[in-house]
Write a structure and sequence with these properties.
The protein is of the alpha+beta class. It is built from 6 helices and 13 strands. Helices cover about 25% and strands about 30% of the residues.
Length: about 250
Amino acid sequence: RLRAKNAMFGSKLNWERANYFLPPGAAEPPPTFGMPGWLPFVLEEQRACREAVVVFDQTSFAKFVLKGRDALAVLERLCANRIDVPAGRIVYTAMLNARGGFESDLTIVRLEAHEFFILTGSAQATRDFAWIERHIGDDERAALVDVTSAYSVLSLMGPNAEALLRTLSPDDFSAAALPFATTRLVDIGHTRVRAARMSYVGGPGYELYVATDQCATLYDALDAAGEPFGLRDAGYYTIDALRIESGRRA
């Protein structure tokens, strides 16, 4: 689907990811040591994210589930931030070593009292999994599972994101019903999705975690409903530009 939209792909840790999208009829710009030929296309993607709505495919996030009686104790010990939050809350946190040094940054969703959904960067999957697993004590009951291939992530970002979702869902996506850094299960089109009010690029938006076999169904629903709201596809060059402007570290 993204190839049909003229996506120009890059890669990270063997994941093929859209860097940017060519406008209809445009040719891939040649490499240059000067201003890149793709910059005007990426500027338009950024404008759409600020003024309308865009969809990013961020499926390459690494995703783990940690569950068990001592799951919270393990994360409280490893993480700099407090993880003991109500179910449905999201915590962005560093993981530190015994010297207080930085090991990783990741996002943790508390699903239930003893179950956590963990998202981390594409390039950190093996390292972060190993770091958490080796710090589960022999006397602790907690199991860590890599579920990266089981879930896709579509991020719907921009001021028109909420209005677009309202046309596809009976659920309430307002800030009152779904405050920042919270998540809950919703129906969007014919898919059951975990929606999170999060934004790595600044401004309003949602990360949508969906079973991999339902990702195309969700994408098609968003795509079909998006034209009145100015929806366009955007890539990782736009993500990087906007997260720098909004002061998000990487």
